[in-house]
């Protein structure tokens, strides 16, 4: 449920099994984070390649800070900080909480050391698990809701850790591999088919109080969709190469004005992490440099590139409502992080829509804006989503580095139109 409803909820008796379940879930997510770090050398933890990329060390400190700032300090008056100076270093953007350390300078923090940050994490873990143990009826509902928010926040950062370390390794001329991954796909993608959907007034948004969601997914509300078609699968590398070879990056007609400015400014000629060697395309993956597989979904494209491709193809990007409506009721399965490929793979065979979840986040033409009647969380946590509802676009469906337990049909991811270091790709839509 949304924390905005916490004040109205009746306290629920914290039965032992509920406490044990929450502690087990807490330990599981925290362990996942540390497992993701296992392939890294200490030196890898500290690099910041761009202002939008955070060092691994900062991520693992910040997600502990979140529990410290919004759970321990809020619910446990006797809590003692591991180091009071960390409140400045590891606050990301919660300006109503305290002044944050400048984001572009996170890579300058050689101290605290990685070892100190792991001890900070352990300090926070001990305090959270003890607080759950000691929670009484009055505290339980609000505390458990807040811990679950912290765990979902940590899962978001797990995905960012993988996308950021990919950026770090891609900038290293040695092109190190994060770890061995299997990117070889034997099967070929099925031909793209068009699936028709009738228009009408539909409902989207989250309304199940028993399940967690972010505030931005509420309230549930009516939307009007027109008759439309959706592509049965994602756009492949091979199809995107046709756009490149047709001169797509040199023809302003296909591009939004801001998109064309980005092409000129950044000299884009292909998706991020693509390199041409002789007459072949290669790409950087979390497993190092690999020959491009034409059957895999195109990945690491900006909204501008997705939109230009769709125009060139005579189609359009879907709306977020169109993608939510196909995700509702579908099993959350696919090439998500638990598949352990860490790379998009060719579409599986199937009659209907495939790749609805996983592989790549699908850009939509929908701006990240408040739903009708949207109310932010109370206090500093109101900064979590609401203040970013300007100039960003919604993405749907999760990627090969999104934890499965973090996904749901109503999930709204969002990035700025030029961003392309996330695992972002394209599903086409059209009208009829
Ligand atoms: Fe965060």
The CATH class designation of the largest domain is Alpha Beta
Write out the strand line-up for the largest beta sheet, numbering strands in chain order.
10-9-8-11
Terminus-to-terminus distance: 38 Å
SS-derived structural category:
alpha+beta
Main sheet properties? 4 strands, mixed
Q: Characterize the overall form.
A: globular
Quickly count the domains: 2
| Annotated CATH homologous superfamily of the largest domain | paralog of FGE (formylglycine-generating enzyme)
CATH topology of the largest domain: paralog of FGE (formylglycine-generating enzyme)
What is bound: which ligands? fe (ii) ion
Q: Give the overall pLDDT as a whole number.
A: 94
What would you report as the Rg, rounded to the nearest angstrom? 22 Å
What share of the residues lie within helices? 25-40%
């Amino acid at each position: 449920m949304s924390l905005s409803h916490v004040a109205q909820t009746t306290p629920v008796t914290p039965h032992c099994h509920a406490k044990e379940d929450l502690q087990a879930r807490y330990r599981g997510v925290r362990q996942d984070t540390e497992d993701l770090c296992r392939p890294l050398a200490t030196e890898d933890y500290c690099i910041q390649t761009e202002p939008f990329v955070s060092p691994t060390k900062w991520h693992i400190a910040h997600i502990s800070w979140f529990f410290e700032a919004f759970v321990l300090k809020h619910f446990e008056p006797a809590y003692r900080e591991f180091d009071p100076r960390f409140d400045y270093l590891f606050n990301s953007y919660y300006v109503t909480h305290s002044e944050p350390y400048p984001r572009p300078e996170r890579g300058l923090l050689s101290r605290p050391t990685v070892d100190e940050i792991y001890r900070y994490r352990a300090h926070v873990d001990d305090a959270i698990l003890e607080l759950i143990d000691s929670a009484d009826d009055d505290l339980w509902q609000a505390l458990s809701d807040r811990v679950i928010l912290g765990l979902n926040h940590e899962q978001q950062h797990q995905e960012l850790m993988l996308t950021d370390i990919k950026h770090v390794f891609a900038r290293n001329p040695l092109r190190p591999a994060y770890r061995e991954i299997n990117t070889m796909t034997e099967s070929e993608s099925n031909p793209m088919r068009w699936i028709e959907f009738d228009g009408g007034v539909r409902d989207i948004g989250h309304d199940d109080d028993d399940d967690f969601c972010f505030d931005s997914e509420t309230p549930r509300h009516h939307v009007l969709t027109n008759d439309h078609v959706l592509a049965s699968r994602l756009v492949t590398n091979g199809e995107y190469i046709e756009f490149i070879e047709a001169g797509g990056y040199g023809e302003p007609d296909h591009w939004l004005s801001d998109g064309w400015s980005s092409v000129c400014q950044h000299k884009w000629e292909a998706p991020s992490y693509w390199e041409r060697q002789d007459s072949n395309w290669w790409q950087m993956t979390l497993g190092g440099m690999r020959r491009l597989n034409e059957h895999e979904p195109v990945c690491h494209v900006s909204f501008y590139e997705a939109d230009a491709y769709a125009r060139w193809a005579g189609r359009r990007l879907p709306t977020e409502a169109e993608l939510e409506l196909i995700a509702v009721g579908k099993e959350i399965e696919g090439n998500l992080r638990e598949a352990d490929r860490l790379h998009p793979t060719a579409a599986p065979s199937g009659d209907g829509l495939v790749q609805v979840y996983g592989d790549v986040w699908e850009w939509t033409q929908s701006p990240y804006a408040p739903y009708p009647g949207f109310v932010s969380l109370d206090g500093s946590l109101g900064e979590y989503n609401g203040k970013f509802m300007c100039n960003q676009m919604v993405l749907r469906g999760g990627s090969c580095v999104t934890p499965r337990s973090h996904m749901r049909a109503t999930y709204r991811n969002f990035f700025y139109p030029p961003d392309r270091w996330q695992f972002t790709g394209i599903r086409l839509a059209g009208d009829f």
